[in-house]
Specification:
With 106 residues, the chain is α+β, with helices and mostly antiparallel strands. The chain has one domain (3-96): 2-Layer Sandwich (Alpha-Beta Plaits). Helices cover 42% and strands 27% of the residues. The protein is built from 4 helices and 4 strands. The protein has helices at residues 13-21, 23-36, 62-74, 88-96; strands at 3-10, 40-46, 53-58, 78-85. Strands 2-3-1-4 form a 4-stranded antiparallel beta sheet. The protein starts with a strand and ends in a 10-residue tail after the last helix. The mean pLDDT is 96.
Amino acid sequence: MPKYLVRANYVGDGVKGLLAEGGTKRRDAARAAIESGGGTLESMYFAFGETDVFGVVDFPDDASATAVSLMINASGSVALSLTPLMTPEDVDAAVAKGASYRPPGG
């Protein structure tokens, strides 16, 4: 199953909800949302700095990942982004494709 890096920031009422509910309940809510789209939550960590939450999730396909991302972002309480993750074998397969490119001025 494809893996995705999750980066999320709580905004507005999302921050208030985190303060009221705590981290464990937010993790459980994230897990439920991910599972509703056919995915699984591999790991989730809270942080401070530019990003409030980092996670790794599995989804069966890009459409399922996008559906959950859209649902969460539409809430207005969390700004979430997903980044597809590739294995070294995925990169090997890409390299083997042999695409060509001529850079500007080349």
